[in-house]
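Section 3.1: Structural characterization of target chains.
Under the original work plan, the team committed to producing a structural model for every single-chain target entering the pipeline before any wet-lab resources were allocated. The record below documents one such target. The sequence was received from the expression subgroup and is listed exactly as submitted; it comprises 172 residues.
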Amino acid sequence: MLNNIRRIFDKTIGVSVSMLTIALVVCVVWQVISRFILHSPSTTTDEIARFLLMWCGLTGSAYMVGQHQHLAIEVLGTRLKGVKKLSLNILVQLFIAKFSIMVMIYGGMIQYSNISMTGQLTPSLGLPMSYIYVVVPISGLIILIYNILNILDNVKDILDIKSSLTPSQVQG
């Protein structure tokens, strides 16, 4: 069941990030064409590209957490094996979850609320700036969901290892 949830979540986030990336590429290509070939630069696509870059970067990095491809310093992890390595992975996931909750979700919601109250609009599109910054808590939530799935996977692996041990291996 957990694998099905992860597979659906991976597919949804992966397709979303891919669509954002395609939209970003289309905007940038159109910007280049309109500026250098048509000699009439589009201010709208420039702004859209900047906002898509933010959305792409943050949701893409959240997706990478789920794929275990995020930036990591693995000094200890490469030296450990079995239950100890899985336990370290759980600890790392808990630290990432804490950062995600405190900085991205909580901090992002405060940022979103503050920007919403100002009523500030984007210069050329006229969209509320809060639409742009809502990606921070959304990405934090995606990271948190992946952390929970990763922790559950590690706990399952630990239980599988412990159940496969013989009584003499457990005592020794």
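The helical segments are 2-37, 43-66, 82-118, 129-133, 135-164, 167-171.
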